[in-house]
Amino acid sequence: MGNPARSWLGGIALAVTVFGCGGDDTAPPLACPGPGVTGTVSDDSGNPLADARVTVAVGAGYFGTRSDAQGRFEVSQLVTGTAYTVGASVRDRAYVEREIVASEPCAHVELALPAETHLGSWDNLGDPGEPFGGTNSAVLLPDGRVMMCHDTRDPVLFDPVARTSEPALASPGLQGCHAVVVMPSGRVTYVGGTNVDVFGPGTQTVKNYDPVADRWEVQPSMNGYRWYPTMTTLPDGRLLAIGGGNELNPQRSKTAEVMDPTTMMWTPVGDVALGNEISPILVLRSGDVLMTHRPPQLFSQATLTWRSAMDFVQGPRMPNGDHADHELQMLPDGRVAAIGYKSFTAGQVGRILEIYDPATGSWSLGAESKPVRSRASTVMMPDGRILVIGGYVEDASDPAPRNAYGYTSLVDVWDPGRDAWRRLTSIEVAREYHAMPVVLPDGRIFVAGGEGQPGNEPAASVAEVFSPPYLARGPRPRIGMITETDLRRGGSLTIDLASDEQVTEVVMMGTNATTHFMDSGTGRYESLAFEQIGLHVTARVPGEPGRAIPGWYLVFVLVDDVPSVARIMRLTR
User: Fold this and answer.
1) 3-113: which CATH number, 2.60.40.1120, 2.60.120.10, 3.40.50.2000, 1.10.132.30?
2) 103 forms bridges with which residues in the sheet?
3) Does the predicted model carry a pTM greater than 0.85?
4) Strand 37-43 relative to strand 107-113: parallel, antiparallel, unpaired?
5) Dist CA 130 CA 166 (whole Å)
6) What is the CATH class of 121-471?
7) Coil, strand or helix: which one is 469?
8) Per-residue pLDDT reduced to its tens digit, 271-330
9) Which residues of 229-259 are buried (b: 16+ CB within 10 A; e: fewer)?
10) Could you report the per-residue pLDDT of 493-535, keeping only the tens digit for each?
């Protein structure tokens, strides 16, 4: 027999029976006592789809269940004469829904799911408050607003929900082409850059912005001058800053240093192999730091020194030392994707994707996607897929649309679990590498800046926001309350759900801190171990320092590939 379960939908008791779990082909027929709905979920060829997500919604409430081994489901004890929306989805297949009216005997629906065809959609948010195109950065603040600025003299606080912007207090002095990060204190730290309008020498300047008090604080200077510095947060909470243009611009520095977040004082560490600027960088789960711009190297937090890492399959990359051609994204399994490629070998266009495996220390080519692009904007999304926006088209013969400066409006998504690409809806405005993508708590992706000629401010900026396909896949799970105020390594996270459904994943993602298409946030994507009893979910934050780096995170619960609205939480050691 089946295993009855009871839940609530807007105060209405439901009885759900799932038969044939574990592949029982002799399951009894569905009885469906009382007014309700029975149904089947199949692919578009009629083959049953087991363990499909099935939702029954009325008004703002919904209940979720799963199909059995024969693709069947049944929900009873609905209210006679009430209209409900019954929907079904399976990852990589389209969401399909039907309207039913609860009756006795039960209504019946057959839901056939073709391959996923939804392409997502872009929404024009208008002027973000400033034209951004040359020296700008963007961070997601702990209150959900996006802070953008050129050179810290013209910061803008943009509310992507209300679609409003307001100026923040201007800082004391110019500081463009900086690195930026939101510290666990909530203050935004700007490191290095230049203190002249264009192509100047590096600066040692470090400043904090307090978004609560709307106040700037000048901090102790770095030891080195760093225009276009590379920066990341180490597992122990210190900031690591590398390279950049020194005071003899355009000479690039080989030096690196770390900052103690308690004293804000900087200490020199080992040099890198070659002078560089604004490199892709990520902390691996082991705690070592992978920096891949000219040539790939690894930094040890224990010894404060660098060592060589294995080079890319495709090379040489950017031998002139200019901005990198790629960005790094941490994958859910701990590997690292390098997305973007510019060939310096005659007749070779190359591939856009390489994957680094820390277990072997080696790179391999990922699935091919055309056109090959360099300097695209990339973000990890809460469903574990990577969104790739625009980029410079490297193959002159490729028919891809592009603007006057060679940048395309094409948008793709890469699924690392399947190593497969899919073309999505193009962005309205093709953007060069000064675009600033930020994942929002509601799961949308905000983008502003980079609308004109690379390195120059456009006449005006247009902010856009992307709603990925997962926002069109039926009701979203909802977080009601999280007991803890902060995340802690090895600690628990207690989530009370406001929706009645078995979640399949709890994810914490580092918030974005973007400049020149590089992200100096924590870069984490961690799927947390959890257990669920009724509406209560208890998740476990990883205890390993390399998996739980101090900073700010988006915490999502997911059912398959459908995320909740996230809570922004601070992780402390």
Assistant:
1) 2.60.40.1120
2) 36
3) yes
4) parallel
5) 10
6) mainly beta
7) helix
8) 999 999 899 999 999 999 999 998 999 999 999 999 999 999 997 788 877 889 999 999
9) bbbbbbbebbbbbbbbbbeebeebbbbbbbb
10) 999 999 999 999 999 999 999 999 999 999 999 999 999 999 9
